[in-house]
Amino acid sequence: QVHLVESGGGSVQAGGSLRLSCVASGNTANMYYMAWFRQAPGKEREGVAAIYSKDSVRYADSVQGRVTISKDTAENTLDLQMDSLKPEDTAMYYCAAGRLSYGAWSAGALNRDRYNYWGQGTQVTVSS
Fold it and tell me: Which one of 1, 33, 39, 114 has the fewest beta carbons within 10 angstroms of its own beta carbon?
């Protein structure tokens, strides 16, 4: 089992920045790739950014150019640097991890069904 714990959420004004972090523990050998998802009230959980390796990352169109995902495999940590935040970025942000092959991941990196492990979430609120 893999245990994921997020931190770094908070309240900021539009245009501000936040850095989210996720620490993984447990059987991290079962964790080949990681991602950030978010869920706003009344909406489906959606993929924000995913990473298999430093050369294999995916971003949702809605955040492209404003966020950067990074992973430290040795430390089992995952970060999400978010800049130029907008009110529509307000959501609960979740860290996720999975263990499919690269091909399977690449075909749907921002799809929930690629991920086996989930954190409890950290709230991000952006005010206008």
Answer: 1
